[in-house]
Design a protein that fits this description.
heterodimer; A: 281 residues; Rossmann fold; 2 domains; six-stranded parallel sheet; 10 helices; B: 289 residues; mainly alpha; 0% strand
Chain lengths: 281, 289
């Protein structure tokens, strides 16, 4: 018994750099050799899909990009999938950014989806209004008078000269809001200052770390579903039948989780053995 | 492939592996990547903030092209400014679709006051700008928080425990069981934060149940945090794998070879001088924490 306990103690005191190496290996291998684990959509992801699917053709959808390259692996696949879904259903997409880097992320996604895959026309089918600093003040500005805040779009074209901006003066002129968010300002500010006061339905795709913060709004009906981190993005990819980077990352995600759980179990066993021995002596 | 794309891949590979090298120990590659990130972020934010907000929405309202009249005082000042920077103040006024609103001189003055904090003699003036921002933010937050986080959440947790139209048990959809969990969890969680009475007897038991609910919530937060970090790691590895191809001239392999080689050589020299413990001492973690 002592021998087994000693093995666990040795595992418990292993240099953390070995753990980093093991995690790196278990993440890289499934990326190089995909396993193809099944992906099943959760109810929260299905709610987002159903809400967008239920929108009548030609609806005005505000897509707000609130993330930077640092969370690109989680948020970008969601944005791309949502854009694919919106453009496939011929919705009008208005893109704003509460984060400065969000503008680049939006440009990247629009170039890939709107131009590359659907051949949509800028100014008629989609518009990139761009970034404005100010956090919740920007959200308030969009709610009260979007034209006051965005007199020009990201290309410095006057919004009065953009055909699809006709009849758009405030947040109530949109039929749906989707916020791709990685923190502040983001989803929570949209709920507090836009969706709740106006009643315009909204949904969100958030980083994993934000899920617990955002979930109460989903449970209470203040938001229609949520895409939770990379798994949420992968689920949405499966819902629209178009696999992307999130799906290919899910094998690595699952294997890495198993290994982390194993490390936690081993660490706890080692901790309890150590505590037992220290009490003994 | 364009040269700029290949160069971008090399820079990305260098910065990614440079940041990862911190997992071994603090080193100049990590520091270079970190400093570059901070500097570029600050510069980018400043530039974007100026060209997307200050220039079109502030200067564009003070000196709009549609009201341009070189004989007025406003536009005389504008022409002087235009002489110094024609990109910010183009000839004939700023054409961003605004009317002239001289009330925007107030935010301009408050903004300038905030910048005066850099001059010790006038730093007191910064308080006015800060006071406005704090007051405005507090007022804005108070309404949004009360409406969505207090009233909205109370509405969300006010469930009917005896709604027999719902199934008795269902984990993923509304059910009587879930309603009871919401009710008990909310009440017990709140009681845990009630400190006006000693947590004994019924209150003690209820607050203990509240702790379990909080612990489950913290556990879920931890799980999601781990998931998020692994997702980011996957993102970086996906890019590194992409950059290791021949079309990028094997950027990842070369950068990895250079960084690992340099760190290995530095460790060897330091070990030789007796500065650090030998590398093969990875078996013990006692020095880590």
């Amino acid at each position: 018994m002592d021998k087994i306990e000693n093995i666990f103690l040795k595992i418990g005191s292993v240099d953390r750099r070995w753990i980093f190496i093991v995690i790196a290996v278990v993440v890289i291998i499934p990326l190089l050799v995909p396993i193809g684990l099944p992906i099943r959509a959760t109810d929260t992801s299905k709610s987002v899909y159903d809400a967008i699917e239920a929108l009548p053709k030609g609806s005005n959808v505000l897509l707000s990009i609130e993330y930077s390259p640092s969370t690109k692996p989680e948020n970008h696949p969601m944005t791309i999938s949502i854009m694919r879904h919106l453009f496939r259903n011929d919705q009008k997409v208005y893109v704003t950014c509460l984060w400065p880097d969000g503008q680049f992320m939006a440009q990247d996604a629009l170039k890939q989806v709107a131009e590359g895959e659907f051949n949509k026309t800028y100014g008629e089918d989609y518009v990139l209004l761009g970034y404005r600093p100010g956090g919740e003040a920007v959200v308030k500005g969009i709610v009260s008078n979007i034209r006051k805040l965005f007199s020009v779009d990201a290309k410095q074209t006057k919004v009065d000269d953009i055909p699809m901006m006709d009849g758009i003066t405030n947040f109530k002129d949109f039929d749906f809001l989707f916020s791709a968010s990685a923190g502040y300002p983001g989803t929570i500010e949209w709920v507090q200052y836009a969706a709740d006061p106006t009643g315009v339905p909204m949904s969100s795709g958030v980083t994993s770390i934000q899920v617990n913060e955002v979930m109460p709004y989903v449970q209470s009906g203040q938001m229609v579903g949520v895409l939770a981190g990379m798994p949420g993005a992968a689920e949405y990819e499966s819902l629209i039948n178009q696999k992307g980077s999130a799906t290919s990352g899910m094998d690595a995600q699952s294997v890495a989780h198993l290994v982390i759980v194993l490390f936690i179990v081993l660490g706890n066993i080692s901790f309890f053995i150590e505590r037992k021995r220290s009490r003994k002596y | 492939m364009e040269f700029s794309t290949i160069l971008g891949a090399w820079v990305a590979a260098f910065l990614t592996i440079g940041i990862f090298s911190y997992l071994y120990k603090d080193n100049p590659f990590y520091k270079a990547a970190e400093h570059l990130f901070v500097g570029v972020s600050a510069g980018y934010l400043l530039s974007l903030g100026f060209w997307t907000q200050l220039q079109p929405n502030l200067f564009g309202r003070l000196f709009p092209a549609k009201h341009y009249d070189p004989d007025t005082i406003t536009y005389t000042i504008y022409n002087v400014l235009s002489f110094f920077s024609s990109s910010i103040f183009p000839e004939g006024g700023i054409d961003k679709g605004h009317d002239q609103h001289l009330t925007y001189l107030i935010p301009l003055a408050l903004g300038v006051m905030m910048l005066l904090s850099l001059i010790p003699r006038f730093s007191w003036m910064a308080r006015w700008g800060i006071a406005y921002v704090v007051g405005m933010a507090a007022g804005l937050k108070a309404y949004g928080y009360l409406n969505s986080n207090v009233l909205g959440q109370i509405k969300g947790t006010a469930v009917n425990l005896l709604d027999f139209s719902l199934p008795v048990f269902s984990l993923s959809s509304p059910s009587i069981f879930n309603n009871i969990i919401i009710f008990v969890g909310t009440i017990c969680g709140l009681l845990y934060f009630y400190f006006s009475k000693e947590h004994k007897g019924l209150l003690g038991k209820a607050s203990k149940i509240g702790i379990y609910f909080l612990m489950i919530s913290f556990g879920a937060s931890f799980g999601f945090a781990v998931m998020g970090r692994i997702s980011l790691l996957i993102g970086r590895f996906t890019d590194l794998i992409k950059y290791s191809g021949s079309e990028y001239n094997y950027a990842t392999f070369w950068v990895l070879f250079i960084i690992v080689g340099a760190l290995g050589y530095a460790a060897y020299k330091e070990e030789d001088r007796g500065v650090i413990a030998p590398i093969d001492n990875l078996g013990s973690s006692t020095e880590e924490e």
